[in-house]
Structures are given as structure tokens and as C-alpha cells.
Amino acid sequence: MTHSRCLTVLVGVVILACGQTPATTAPGASAVDIGAPIVPYEAIDLGTLSDRISAQATAINNNGQIVGWSESWQTGQPAHAFLWQDGVMLDLGTLGGSTSRPTDINDLGQVVGQSTTAEGRWHPFLWSDAVMTDLHPGAPNFNPYPSPRVNNSGQVIWSDYPVGVSDTKDLPHPFLWSNGVLTDLLGRAGSALGINGRGQVVGGSTFDRVAYVWDNGKLQFLPSLGGTARANGINNRGQVVGISQTASPTIGHAVIWEDGQITDLGVLPGDSLSTTGGITQSGLVVGLSLPTTTYAAAIHSAGSGAFSCR
């Protein structure tokens, strides 16, 4: 029988700084290939839950606490969320159903993810102080992968169907859970993809495909490079990163918004597409640059390169 175990890897990373930030109308000069330096690392076998034979890690916090799930699909044992710390793997349980999978952990050790309920529905959860809480009671069962994210204040974001929806035509809405209060951020279909320590949330709307920032009840829609846009990350300085179509409907570029103004981060030499992967608190942006000329081809492209940008 094959055993699959998850690893945590300690790696030293070398990042080459970008050049000067280009103007919106002249992309390309700021994206620098960071390469793939070979660095020493240590791989640690995290093991599995005692009654399961495989495991997968999904997130780690700054204290070295790791979350993931462990299962035995070969024998029909469903996945259970776990928290690993100092060599001990703790089963976090479920919301009453058979399965749970974590997606994020903050520096307080609070874990979020999705779990099945006793009725078999997938709901987002927050695990804190050994208690797993259903964050969206009564939600329908149309979205098995809400993928919640949590900040260090215990505020949680995800995309899900509103309570009372009877079919999938409505599509998921972006939600924020904060101190027991649930907020539908757009009041319509969209996504919640990033949250910072101040509780500012970013994402995109579904039908008109506009990037937004939600800040303490105030909703701001962000400009684009000429087409649709989506925000996927925000740091504590309020710098927002994402992707925007240019004037060409088949070309999208990585972008950063500061004080409501958009800057095109460009592409690596010879490429035509790029997207952001995240932003640090100091404003360092990482992402992916691709040589293809259509979104569909970009998903499957093998000739892509990572970049970093300041």
C-alpha cells in the first residue's frame, strides 16, 4: 500500500530586485526574472493522523504551525483537517459531517477551511481554541470549495452562495466574517481574494469584472488598463495587486493599485501575459509571466517565468 506524507521545507530564497517602476503606458521594464537558485533546505516528514495513511499540508504561519488534511482514500477514510506543531499532529474534526479541509492559518493559530455538516453540506469554518465554528449556517450546498482566508485579527473571507438561494444561477457572493457578524461585501456575485491586517478586503465582481476594495463598509471600485480587472492581494499599507486586461481583450498584465491609481507591472522580455501572486508588507510583488497570447493557452503554458517587482 502506498503511503503519501506531507513535508515542510525550510528554504532560503534569493530575489533580485526590479528596476524602476514603469508608467502605465509603458509596461515591461519592471518585471525581472528571479531565476531558480539552488539553495540548501531541510525536508521534515509531518506524518499522518493515526488512522489514516496520507496527508497534505496547505498553509503555515510565522510560528511554524502547519495545517493540512489527512485521509485514506484507498480505504475510504475521508479527509480530516489537522494542525501540526512541534512534531504533534492534531485532528481538528468536522462540522458534524465526514470531511474537513483547512485553507489558512493565522499567527494566533486560528484555522479556517471548509467542512461538511451533518446534513452533508459544505460550509466554511473557523477553528479557534479547540472549537470549530460554522461561519455560514443555512448556506446551500452549491459550493464545496469556498477556500476561506483569515487575518491576524480573526477576520475571515470567502466566496459562497447566500442563504436562501435555491439554484446556482445566482453564483457565489464575497463574504466577510468579523466577530460573529457576516457581511455580503458586494450584495451580488463576486469573489473575496485577499484581506490585510486592517480588515480591508479585495476581489472582483463576476458579471462586470471590476476589481474592488472594501474598507469598513466603504466599497471602492478600481480602474483598469482598459478591460476587465481583478484584485487578489492587499498589504497593510493598502497597496493592492491583481491582474487587468489591456486594451486588447486577449492580453492581461500584472498591476498594482496605490491610492486608487493603477500601474502596469509589465512582463518579462519576450512575454505578453503576466499576473500577480502576492505582495509583501514592504511592497515587494511576485507573480508569473507567460509568452502566450491567450488566457486559455496561458493556463497550460510550460514556458513561463517567475518575476519579482518593487
Number of strands: 26
Structural class by SSE content: mainly beta
How far apart are the first and last residues' alpha carbons, in Å? Answer: 48 Å
Anisotropy-based shape: globular
Element order, helices and strands? Answer: EEEEEEEEEEEEEEEEEEEEEEEEEHE
Radius of gyration: 20 Å
Sheet with the most strands: spatial strand order: 2-26-25-24
Low-pLDDT parts are: 7-29, 294-303
Number of domains as seen in the coordinates: 2
Tally of contiguous helical segments: 1
Range of helix content: under 10%
Strand content: over 45%
What is the makeup of the main sheet? 4 strands, antiparallel
What integer is the average pLDDT? Answer: 85
Walkthrough of the structure:
The chain is an all-beta fold. It has two domains: 1-13 and 42-155, no CATH class; 185-310, Methylamine Dehydrogenase, Chain H. 2% of the residues lie in helices and 48% in strands. The protein has one helix at residues 295-300; strands at 7-11, 32-33, 41-45, 54-60, 66-72, 77-85, 88-93, 96-105, 111-117, 122-128, 131-134, 149-150, 156-160, 173-178, 181-184, 190-195, 201-205, 211-215, 218-221, 229-234, 240-245, 252-258, 261-266, 273-279, 285-290, 305-309. A hairpin with a 5-residue loop joins strand 16 (190-195) and strand 17 (201-205). The longest helix is centred in the last third of the chain and has 6 residues, at 295-300. The termini are far apart.
